[in-house]
Amino acid sequence: MSTFDPPTSRATLRDLRLITDHGGLSGADLFRGELLNGTRVVVKRSTHGRDVFQRLLGHAESLELALWSDGVFDRLPRGVSSPTIGGWVDGTDTWIVMRDLDGFVVGPDHAFDESEVERLLASLTALHSSGIRPNATTPLDRVVGMFSRTRLDAVDAPAALKASVARGWSLFRELGGSALADRVVPLADDPSPLVSALAARPAGFCHGDVAGVNMAWDGDGVALLDWGQAFIGPPALDIARFLPSGLRTSVVANDELLAAYQSRRGAEFDGVGLELSLLAAFVWYGWQKAIDASETADLALKRAELEGIRWWCERLPRALAHLHD
């Protein structure tokens, strides 16, 4: 809990400096600055017209601000925290104020070891089992179909993003073969059968975008940043969506992480939910994985990406079988 009044206007901040190298894809701006009491903060400003992710997810205003305003971050279970400490809406802009975790954010290329994977899984399991049900979350169809052609067209997404998605699925057809692509790519265009199957599984409160860039170690637990994709759905979907980026450079393999997850869930483990979640994670981001496997210049990373694609191609038929049971 904060020991100071939360920052709810620009007047509570000073010395804001634009961060020019954060590399975000959404179109949001990041600043560093201070509260009036000297606390260092990072401030995110998003504009609905420019924040393509916010539009793709169907949020007129920041979901993260709604979660903070409703006190959700104060109810997070032990082992899970959010750095968000305030925010406000100013015209078409949404401002989010966070504790500055510079130096503690894990980062996109972190090589997770077994102890870190166990630590992350413990925190996520606590979140999923918390019983939290926020007033506002991201609808499951928007989570899965975020990059569907229909969704991209509906929000007038940038032409470059549309071209990347189309190119990625074309490359996947070459990498995974036409037989598998003929079953997976239609779900990327219309994920409704998969969404219906996921909605029938046991559900929990999920962060939605667990990745190295969105997490920092916080004591024995994990601080999770960027809750803009938070949803109510199968807990395994949080785990599945971590795989495309989380273990790229790690000694821990996908199968090892999934086995650890199954062990931790125990009697609550939902095997069908996991398989469907893996399919949903690939429908969401498989196009980018195909691009990485085909076009990455670093040869060692390219080999790792190609091995990753092979893993997904071997695993996806199991989920497709459940989808059509």
Note down, in words, how this protein is organized.
With 325 residues, this protein is an alpha+beta fold. 41% of the residues are buried. The protein has a five-stranded antiparallel beta sheet, covered by helices on one side. The chain has a three-stranded mixed beta sheet with strand order 4-9-8. Helix content is 46%, strand content 16%. It is built from twelve helices and ten strands.
Properties at a glance:
globular; five-stranded antiparallel β-sheet; 12 helices; 325 residues; Aminoglycoside 3'-phosphotransferase, Chain: A, domain 2; Phosphorylase Kinase, domain 1; alpha+beta; 2 domains
Put the structure in a nutshell.
With 325 residues, the protein is an alpha+beta fold. The protein contains 12 helices and 10 strands. The protein has a 5-stranded antiparallel beta sheet with strand order 1-2-3-6-5, covered by helices on one side. It has a 3-stranded mixed beta sheet with strand order 4-9-8. A two-stranded antiparallel sheet has the order 7-10.
List the helices and strands and how they pair.
Blueprint: E1 13-18, E2 29-35, E3 40-47, H1 52-56, H2 63-69, E4 80-81, E5 84-90, E6 93-99, H3 114-128, H4 140-144, H5 149-154, H6 159-176, H7 178-189, H8 192-199, E7 204-206, E8 215-218, E9 221-224, E10 231-233, H9 235-246, H10 254-265, H11 271-295, H12 299-323
Parallel strand pairs: 4-9
Antiparallel strand pairs: 1-2, 2-3, 3-6, 5-6, 7-10, 8-9
What is the CATH architecture term of the largest domain?
Answer: Alpha-Beta Complex
User: What is the CATH top level name of the largest domain?
Assistant: Alpha Beta
The third-level CATH topology of the largest domain is Aminoglycoside 3'-phosphotransferase, Chain: A, domain 2
Largest beta sheet: what is the strand line-up? Answer: 1-2-3-6-5
The total beta strand count reads: 10
> Distance between the terminal alpha carbons, to the nearest Å?
47 Å
Main sheet properties:
5 strands, antiparallel
Low-confidence stretches: none
Overall geometry: globular
Residue share in β-strands: 15-25%
Range of helix content: 40-55%
Task: Report the order of strands and helices.
Answer: EEEHHEEEHHHHHHEEEEHHHH
The average pLDDT is 92
Number of helices: 12
Total individual domains: 2
Q: Whole-number radius of gyration?
A: 19 Å
